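[retry 2/3] DUF4825 domain-containing protein: previous attempt timed out, resubmitting with same input.
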Amino acid sequence: MNKTCWLCILLCCPLLLAACGLPSGTLSDLYKENLSDVSEISIVDGRTGEKTNIADARTIEAFLKDMEGVTFTPLQDQSAREGYIYSVHLFEDGDETFSFTSNTIGEHYYASEPDFHPIVEGYTK
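[retry 2/3] DUF4825 domain-containing protein: success.
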């Protein structure tokens, strides 16, 4: 093999390995705490900057129930990108315990199936 081919292999391997080691699953799989302890949810619309805070226990429970069927899967391409449509922050007694955007969880890029945008959008109106 020529040097260019080896260089390409060396550059691509870390990206593939990074995505392989990331967990996939539902929100309840990825959330390290107990979802029933969430006391507030904050949603930011990345297009407008508008922020919606949800503190009503029934609404929080409904939101989390609606999110139960959404699976988050790490993207193979973990290269940097910018922007998001929605950012969701979960709080317990005023402390942020978890956050995710329409394309990230933590510093890693994920896809959701089904797309969770319609769920989140329903709680921002």
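[retry 2/3] DUF4825 domain-containing protein: Residues 3-123 form a domain with the Immunoglobulin-like fold (CATH 2.60.40).
[retry 2/3] clearing retry counter.
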